[in-house]
């Protein structure tokens, strides 16, 4: 009998039973006041009149009126870059010990996002909330005695100008509490290996010695790791190595496009739990099994605002126009897409994180990620979001019984007429490019009226080219972005797409 597991499960269930439904607006009001109070004497706080905002009758309105939107480039140029020169009290008291390196899905140069001790504590608290939510998933007691494979970036952080730098997954893993280390794999030694391929090889070699119950990481890289383990041991599926594997937390990436290819690596289905951990903070987690939506964390160091996701509010580069209207949690509506804006205990203020979301349940503050502002394809009015692309890809997978874990798309001109050019990564495509193009086109017309109108006018056609999924991984490696939190860009601009096509032709 799993005695220890039963005790742990009982503690989790008890903790879950005493958590009351929060008052979203009240919690967010408290968080905003705490953020402003803490940062009022920083340079940013003085520049944006935080003292006056705190004395105003409506804190939320005054904050929005006195503080413009910031993306990474703007806040870095005005404030964060001076932290590397030793300046303090710029957007948050003191000078952070860590910087999260994040090139995201665009650009070759890494962003350096401050990670304060307050943010690390907030991430730990949200992690505990997520663990407590496991009580809702009807997992057996012995699950809580198994280890968890956390496949992030290297925990061997680099020192630069008195700071430690690495991806947020590496920073978080390097700060794992001592009591959790016995449950954490691949362990301290292997997790410090910088080279992705070498680290995965070591994982494969040690895999049979571990009793893994849960996986955590980005789907594309998790798949590659699992394939390496299967190949190394010459087995049919990962359950032959880890028979007690029951849970996978996906790490802030839409799992839909990976579902078929991921499930092909398993002997039987496992529980998939979505989380939303970004370089800027742990924003949301899946609280219950009845939905794939995630619960925003409204009481833990992050203040959220929402800008309606409309073309007139979005610049060509994905940034917001200065007068784009924002609303707070008390004003949101279900099934409306919003650009997510955050202010945090790491000194990000009205910060455009780059994601778009939709509320699926306002009472529970549950959301889904629908895409990226930079990946919104609106050439000739098609208004095509990544969420719609993912849905169309899944329809095509089902229709042709194929796996499409990767894809990218761009609007291109052929004989002065616009087309959508798709590159689809599939290991088992059995139909022609033309059939795939017709199926994608039909699915998008059905799902998106703006796309349907565009296709009847200026958007003249759809082209598809199928390539091996490994080309997408090689592209990320070519851009010095392999493993960890790296995500493939789903929509490319004209210049980047030319680079991509040249790269594909060389493979």
TrEMBL record:
InterPro entries: GH3 (IPR004993), GH3_C (IPR055378), GH3_M (IPR055377)
Domain GH3 middle: 297-362
Residues in GH3 C-terminal domain copies: 390-495
Pfam families per UniProt: GH3 (PF03321), GH3_C (PF23572), GH3_M (PF23571)
GO molecular-function term, one example from the UniProt record: acid-amino acid ligase activity
GO cellular component: cytoplasm
Originating organism: Galbibacter orientalis DSM 19592
Name assigned to this protein: GH3 auxin-responsive promoter-binding protein
Protein origin, superkingdom: Bacteria
